[in-house]
Amino acid sequence: MKMMWQLLQAYFFPCLYCGSLQGTKALLCERCARQLEYYEHEQGLFHYNEAPYPIFALYEWNPGQSDLLSSTVLALKQGQRREAWNHYAQKFSQKRMALNMTPSKKIRFVPAPSSSGHKDHAFAHAEALAKHFSGEVVPCLKKLKKKSQRGGNRQQRQRLRLGLDEKYSEVSKDSTDTLWVFVDDILTTGSTAHAAYEVLGSPTHFEVWVLGRRSLSCGASRYLL
Ligand SMILES: [Zn+2]
Asked: C-alpha 35: how far from its chain's center?
């Protein structure tokens, strides 16, 4: 019986939120997927102008507000989930198009580096976006070993944690016909995104695209960048 259920699950992915097997696509059933739209921006994407570059998010995520959105985000963080990331990347692209914001430049998607050095969900997200925007994935960032973090402010310490992969030592050259897009799943303080911006040499054309912007509680300053 257990094996039968496992076999069924392999063919009919149940909705991760309600368990329904009906019309499940990109982790959710149709009903839950419609409910998730409630957390999208009514005119397209959430757009934040709090850094020297624009930040775009498909959802605004307040973990205490929606179990549905939280479950979806957590599920997307497990494994590669390429099909699901493809679904959200397509949604992102449709919304950019609806906003008439289809970039004319060649886009280089730079995923947030994983701690393990292996491809993780940020890479899967970047890969899916690259497909929908005919761009290129440039996994040029790497996490540096945690040493020499003493001294300096939070921003300086964060910057020390990221570096350029030796294979991509040429990438920091600014180019007017390239749009650099830093990709992550969730943006919280934005400090990793800002570290990426600096490590890439503060390119003129730089944006941050994420699935969700996590709202900060406790009155923490948003300008922790
Ligand atoms: Zn459902």
From this structure: 21
